[in-house]
């Protein structure tokens, strides 16, 4: 009796593990398919943008650099540091 119970328990465990992996794989495929096939329209950018990460300026942004007569706004200090290290790289964005 013990062996039949253990066999059923083992079979249930193996079936559930295999089924979980198949479900996870199908979910990943669905996400990839949605990402690659659906073309979502890009939002029109209005106002200043962060040239490093291409985010539209928010009201809470405090980081900026002055380049010539232009003021360039950044979403974070990380983006500001990247811009200040090489402004020519982001000049044409």
Question: How would you describe the overall organization of this protein?
Answer:
With 93 residues, this protein is mainly alpha-helical. It folds into 2 domains: 40 residues; 52 residues, no CATH class. 53% of the residues lie in helices and 11% in strands. It contains 3 helices and 2 strands. A two-stranded antiparallel ribbon has the order 1-2. A hairpin with a 2-residue loop joins strand 1 and strand 2. The protein is rod-shaped. The N and C termini lie far apart (73 Å). The mean pLDDT is 74.
Instruction: Give the spatial strand order of the biggest sheet.
Output: 1-2
Largest sheet, in brief, is: 2 strands, antiparallel
SS class: mainly alpha
Supply Rg. Answer: 26 Å
Mean pLDDT: 74
Q: Tally of extended strands?
A: 2
Shape: rod-shaped
Q: Helical percent range? A: 40-55%
Tally of separate helices = 3
The ordered string of helix (H) and strand (E) elements is: HEEHH
What secondary-structure arrangement, pairings included, does this model have?
Elements: H1 2-37, E1 63-67, E2 70-74, H2 77-85, H3 87-90
Antiparallel strand pairs: 1-2
Which key terms come to mind for this protein?
two-stranded antiparallel ribbon, 93 residues, rod-shaped, 2 strands, 2 domains, mainly alpha, 11% strand
